[in-house]
Amino acid sequence: MRGDKGGFFTVVASNEGSMLLQSELRLLQVLMDNIPDSIYFKDSNNKFIKVNKAKADHSGTTAEEMIGKTDFDFMSREQATKACLDDEQVIQTGIPITNKVERVTHMDGTEVYNSVTKIPWYDAHGVIIGTIGLSRDITELIRSKERLQEKSDQLKEINSDLERRVQREVEKRRIHEELMTQQTKLAAMGEMITMIAHQWRTPLNIMALLMQDLQDACDSDHVDKGRVIDAAGEAISQINFMANTINDFKDFCKPSKSKGLFDVKVAVEAVCAITSALLRHNSVEIRVNCTRSDRVMVYGYQNEFKQVILNIITNAVDSINDKRTATNVKGLIEIDIDRDDEKVTLVIKDNGKGIEPEIIDRIFDHYFTTKKDNVGSGIGLYMSKIIIENSMGGNIYTTSKDGKTAFVIELKL
């Protein structure tokens, strides 16, 4: 009885355990079937033991139909061979394959990208008896990356095209500025010729008087040798003065080949020297005031800097002459030079007609001029700004109040 009773309880326990196992298996199947990723179990012969609904759907069949079959029944030979080789590798090495990206063609012809993970399947004794696989559709992720790469490539092409266009525009601007520089130089040459004419007028008059004196001496009965020597000496002195004038203008017109240190005060005084005749002719006094007794050195293009000072001085003379049409003003240009620990500052002031407030912000614009009858080219101050700010890294601006205009130039030490 006891044996029968014990057998009864054993059968009951066995049935209850089987029912519990079947319940857990059903729960596992429900869980697997509600996961969108493909999941499968294979034995050591690469035969499917268990698959979820997603795996069956992707294979174009049912889960029941897949049990006991291999990948060769649901894939192309090429794809099935790759899948089986991966499974055998995991079984032989015990090393998982994780997140391997594969391009797969489903039975309906749809091409997708899957992220495949395969791990070894162990029994209760730790022996590998097959593989467990999980395959996730990452097609949209791959497509997004491809679209992103395509957009990135397009952006690179746009950037490259933009760089090429910028380079072309920079080159055009460089050529344009070179042309404007040449125009400025031509205009400056015209002013130089006028100044040379002013500088030479007095020596030529003196030489004419000397020649007349020598002619009178030759016409007389007794030639005064001392008188002739004195006249010749004076003539040679005037010729040397004229030659030096040409050298001064030649050096001034020569462009600076490279940046270098130069004394701002010396450069300003050189410009004052070559404009002295122009200033005298127009009854304009010029004063240079420097707060420093030592040299005021800056780094830049010396002759181009002189061109800026020349342009401002000649503009000041024109402004003073314009004011003279209304009042008999005595012309005055003052140049103040100061230096601190960071910069050199030049303030060039005149007592001309001044600049109207409504146009003062445009004074450095290209082709903008305040001169009447198109006398001015409108490029002098524009090029001055380019020279000071672009070429020498400084700053230039202007103020005008009560008929007094001031141009301020700041150069870093």
TrEMBL record:
Residues 24-78 form the PAS domain. Residues 98-150 form the PAC domain. Residues 195-413 form the Histidine kinase domain. It comes from the Bacteria. The keyword Transmembrane helix does not apply. Gene3D superfamilies: 1.10.287.130, Histidine kinase-like ATPase, C-terminal domain (3.30.565.10), PAS domain (3.30.450.20). GO terms for molecular function: ATP binding; phosphorelay sensor kinase activity. It catalyses: ATP + protein L-histidine = ADP + protein N-phospho-L-histidine. Keywords: ATP-binding, Coiled coil, Kinase, Nucleotide-binding, Phosphoprotein, Transferase, Two-component regulatory system. This is histidine kinase. The lineage of its organism: Bacteria, Pseudomonadati, Nitrospirota, Thermodesulfovibrionia, Thermodesulfovibrionales.
